[in-house]
Amino acid sequence: RGRAAAPKDGPRSAESLVACSRLIVEGRVERVDPVPGTDQDRITLRVTHTYKPRSGGAPTVTFPVDQGLAPGAAVGDRPLVSIPEGAQEPDTWALGAERTRLRTRIVTALPRAADLPCNAGQDG
Questions:
Q1: Which of 63, 83, 89, 109 has its CA 20 to 30 Å from the CA of residue 43?
Q2: Model pTM?
Q3: For residue 82, which phi and psi values (nearest 5 degrees)?
Q4: Which helix (H) or strand (E) holds 111?
Q5: CATH of region 4-113
Q6: Phi, psi for 4 (deg, rounded to 5)
Q7: 3-state helix, strand, coil in the chain (%, to 5)
Q8: What's the average model confidence in pLDDT over 83-99?
Q9: pLDDT tens-digit profile of 34-50?
C-alpha cells in the first residue's frame, strides 16, 4: 500500500521541507484513535528513524493528523512524516514508494538545509 499526501502548502523543495520542519521521522503506527468532533485521528508512532532533530528524538511520538492527509491511517502503517515548526500536526505523510522517494530527497537535502531559514527554497 503506497499513498502520500503532499505538504499542505503545496509543492516545495526538499530543503524547504527540512528547514521548516521541527520533526521528520519514520516509524510504525502503533495506535490510531479518532478525535471526537473533528476530522482528525490521534496517531501514536513508534519511531524507527529520526531525520530531524539530528539527536535526542523520542522513541514514540503522538500527534493529531487530518484524515484528509492520512486517509485510512492504520496500525502497522510505516509512514515518513514531517511536522512544521510551531505546529502539532504533520504536513507530510508518505507511505510505500512515495516514502522511499521522499526519504531520498530528505537525506539529500539535510546538509544543504542545515543553515537555511524556513522561507528559503519555496519554489521547489
A1: 109
A2: 0.85
A3: -125, 140
A4: helix 96-113
A5: 2.40.50.120
A6: -150, 155
A7: 20, 35, 45
A8: 96
A9: 999 999 999 999 999 99
